[in-house]
TrEMBL record:
Domain called BON: residue spans: 47-115
InterPro entries given in the database record: BON_dom (IPR007055), Lipoprotein_DolP (IPR051686)
One Pfam match: BON
Superkingdom of source: Bacteria
Native source organism of the sequence: Pararobbsia alpina
Keywords (A to Z) from UniProt: Signal
Residues spanning the signal sequence: 1-24
Annotated protein name in UniProt: BON domain-containing protein
Keyword Ion transport annotated: no
């Protein structure tokens, strides 16, 4: 009878140790995969800066827009345009140009019309 209890207790301990070992290995694998799955804050900021520069470059190259007073903010593919342009038609053109940039998922256009020097 004592031998049966001893074997049963030893089996229980072995099962528990095997479970803990498997859990530790799975947690280690998740921890190593996590950095690749979620980019760091530094990498995300760099990507946002790069996308903002690409949008500003596209706006500047477009001959129909005076992009001097247009400010671009990028966040995870969402672009916000602020500032002002000299003509109302340039507001829609700025939206269209921005949407044409690779990596842009949405555009929040807050541009207003203001004549230069005012």
């Amino acid at each position: 009878m004592n031998m049966t209890k001893l074997v049963s207790a030893a089996s229980g301990v072995l099962v528990m140790l095997a479970s803990l070992s498997a859990f530790a290995q799975a947690s280690g694998a998740d921890a190593m995969a996590s950095p690749a799955a979620a980019p760091s804050a530094h990498a995300t900021k760099a990507e946002n800066r790069q996308l903002g520069k690409e949008v500003k470059r596209a706006l500047t190259k477009n001959k129909e827009i005076d992009a001097t007073n247009i400010y671009v903010r990028a966040r995870d593919g969402a672009i916000r345009l602020t500032g002002y342009v000299p003509e109302n038609a340039q507001i829609q053109i700025a939206t269209d140009v921005t949407q044409g940039v690779s990596g842009v998922s949405s555009v929040d256009n807050k541009l207003t019309v203001r004549q230069p020097g005012h």
